[in-house]
Amino acid sequence: MKMKRTIVNGNGYCAVMEDGILVEYIPFDFAGQNGCILTGRIGRLMPGMKCAFVDIGRKKSGFLPLEENGGSFRAEPVRSGEMTILQIKKEETGEKGAYLTRDITLPGRLVMLMPMNRYIGVSGRIQDLKRREEMKETGTKIAAGRYGLVMRNAASDAEEGEIRQEAEKLWALWQKVRERAKESGTAGRILWSNDNAERIRDDYSSGGYEITAATDDMEREIKRQLKEAGERKLQLPGGGNIVIDRCEAMTVIDVNTASAGKGEKERIVTETNLEACAAIARQVRLRNLSGIIVIDFIDMENETDRSLVCGKLTECFKNDRIKTVIHGWTKLGLMEMTRKRTGREME
């Protein structure tokens, strides 16, 4: 069993280590607003693109879809010039402004509350159908038609009273957000700030990770591993290497045998590809790579070996707190995967 530890430096970062290896590093970007709730003034409506541009107090206007996903969202259509409450779903990147939503979510440890929605759902990590139905009934009873709720994995072992208490706390927070919005006539005013440290603690609290404060020795080791990990070309223990290149549309990772040991070619190729899976998963998490990721593994003719590598890659991402989907092999023999964007990637 892996020794899993989440190290928190309250003034600077959160780091995740598995068996002493740094796999995730999240600097606390106090200027960043990903997930924050703020005021915005609706600007130009673009019906053909089904979106509106919104002034959120930045040089770049935010992008707001005119239609939110799902039929359970409750709000009147937006009008040009009006002030509204918004949440930053994806931070601005490159030439693109921040992606916004009116379908607000307030995360807790046990539930996620959606004040503008009426959807009641259960975390996909809970597989037992009977338990899912029970939790959905509990959520429906607690919400009582006032808001939407998603029952998180941690709620599966909690008492109904504890879940209700957290939901009511989040509902009260939403009332405060609305009051602050009424008092503000300025676009871009932060009404609620997303807390990176708290969110990360919640993400890992139920996964067997020890939460600990950073010591001087830990900080030195984290800095050492960060320095080694940030290169374009990284060596694999067996002699191969991986090369990571990022472009605007996607990230491309190339796997090479390089100076991998002599022997039967097919065996060396498969072993190098399997070794690369762990290194790729670590680098994707550590650099917070997102969007489309294409991996050019060394060509394998044997379908069994290809399945083995796909399974290994999937296994290596099982501890990733960010939603990652391994789509499999393309017709060109490339491995395609996607990872949800959350905050900025490591420079």
Explain what you see:
This protein has helices at 129-143, 160-183, 196-205, 216-229, 265-287, 303-316; strands at 4-9, 13-18, 21-27, 37-46, 51-55, 62-65, 83-90, 99-101, 106-107, 111-114, 120-122, 148-151, 190-192, 210-213, 233-235, 241-246, 250-256, 291-296, 324-329, 335-339. With 347 residues, it is an alpha+beta fold. It folds into three domains: 1-33 and 194-229; 35-192, Nucleic acid-binding proteins (OB fold (Dihydrolipoamide Acetyltransferase, E2P)); 231-339, Aminopeptidase. The strands form four sheets. Strands 4, 5, 6, 7, 8 and 13 form a six-stranded antiparallel beta sheet that branches. The chain has a six-stranded mixed beta sheet with strand order 15-16-17-18-20-19, covered by helices on one side. The two termini are 32 Å apart.
Number of helices: 6
Number of structural domains: 3
Output the helix-strand order: EEEEEEEEEEEHEHEHEHEEEHEHEE
Are there runs of 5+ residues with pLDDT below 50, and where? none
State the end-to-end distance.
Answer: 32 Å
CATH architecture tag of the largest domain: Beta Barrel
Mean pLDDT: 86
Specify Rg, calculated over alpha carbons: 23 Å
The number of E-state strands comes to 20
Q: CATH first level of the largest domain: which class?
A: Mainly Beta
